[in-house]
């Protein structure tokens, strides 16, 4: 890079340098544990609270009879959704056969919709159960559906520990909800 002042950026403190920055302030809320219940035994579960909101405010893509599809507030990739049972259960083995079937059908539909609207080349689908299993909110079961593209894991998340998202969550919710119908 040249030393030309027109290409210099501010470092966030006021000193010009030649680095580009992608600010992702929403990640700080995740790091601080905001919206995560301090005590899992309380009724502060975000996955129980979200269905009480309207679809736009709750980022709900689709409501089923026993489960719903919601955008991840801290997505790993654009279009990252979660399939959650309405009932507050922590483990997959605690779901009823009907809940299991509906979650599977909603997951299949989520893959189809994401493939149609985003041309995803692949998907990561899975559940993290329990704190040791990597669940951010272990008290309420949720299945992740993460769209993937060839080459989508560049230096940003690996070295920079930053995810870049090209679209606002509400815009993504609107796109997916519209395609769901």
Give the topology.
Blueprint: E1 9-10, E2 16-17, H1 26-32, H2 46-49, H3 55-58, E3 60-63, E4 67-71, E5 81-85, H4 97-118, E6 122-126, E7 143-148, H5 155-158, H6 169-180
Antiparallel strand pairs: 1-2, 3-4, 4-5, 5-7, 6-7
Gross geometry: globular
**Unreliably modeled segments:** 1-13
E-strand count: 7
Overall pLDDT, averaged? 79
Gross CATH architecture = 2-Layer Sandwich
Q: Helical region count?
A: 6
**Strand order within the widest beta sheet:** 3-4-5-7-6
Alpha carbon gyration radius = 19 Å
Report on the biggest sheet. Answer: 5 strands, antiparallel
End-to-end separation: 49 Å
| Run of helices and strands | EEHHHEEEHEEHH
Question: Could you describe the 3D structure shown?
Answer:
There is one protein chain. This protein is α+β, with helices and mostly antiparallel strands and 181 residues long. The protein has one domain (43-180): HIT family, subunit A (2-Layer Sandwich), CATH 3.30.428.10. It has six helices and seven strands. Strands 3-4-5-7-6 form a five-stranded antiparallel beta sheet. A two-stranded antiparallel ribbon has the order 1-2. A hairpin with a 3-residue loop joins β3 (60-63) and β4 (67-71). α4 (97-118) crosses α6. The chain is globular and about 35 Å long. The N and C termini lie far apart (49 Å).
